[in-house]
């Protein structure tokens, strides 16, 4: 009989003890079966590391215990869910957002350069009008005017009515159970 067959026979002989030890650790017969199977897989994979003449049972128990601890650490980082949490998760469809963003990029490209830069500095980069004016070497009032004209022009291009926001529609938010903000109450 070759060495692999002898090793496999020895592993099979330790199965009842490993299962009992796995049950004592996990508290579940099915979890113990999984632990024993994982222990056998690891032992077989690393059988060349086992030194003949040493205690196989101790080696297998160590593998099983370490496997159990690794699984516990892994499960400690996971959130248990019986389905109630997952069924409450919802997100608005992202295709509309991507289409809106593509339309916004195209509309920005149609703005005159000075208006586009002013709008990007103030609305996107979060610069104050004073900072944006210093960057563009222009007066603060000119910067405010450019941003205002750029916003109005974008609104016309994107067909956004004054006071109307962008993003998910109120009906989409209602379906998702999200609060709907009234634009008039900003």
Describe the structure.
It is a single chain. The chain is an all-alpha fold. The protein is built from nine helices and no strands. Helix 1 (3-26) crosses helix 3 (56-76). The radius of gyration is 33 Å and the shape is elongated. The termini are far apart.
Shape annotation: elongated
The count of strands amounts to 0
**How many helical stretches?**
9
Structural class: mainly alpha
Please state roughly what percent of the residues sit in beta strands, choosing from under 5%, 5-15%, 15-25%, 25-35%, 35-45% or over 45%: under 5%
> Radius of gyration, Cα only, in angstroms?
33 Å
List SSEs in N-to-C order: HHHHHHHHH
The percentage helix is 55-70%
Keywords:
186 residues; mainly alpha; 69% helix; elongated
What is the topological layout?
Elements: H1 3-26, H2 29-45, H3 56-76, H4 84-88, H5 94-110, H6 113-124, H7 129-136, H8 140-157, H9 170-176
Give a concise summary.
With 186 residues, this protein is an all-alpha fold.
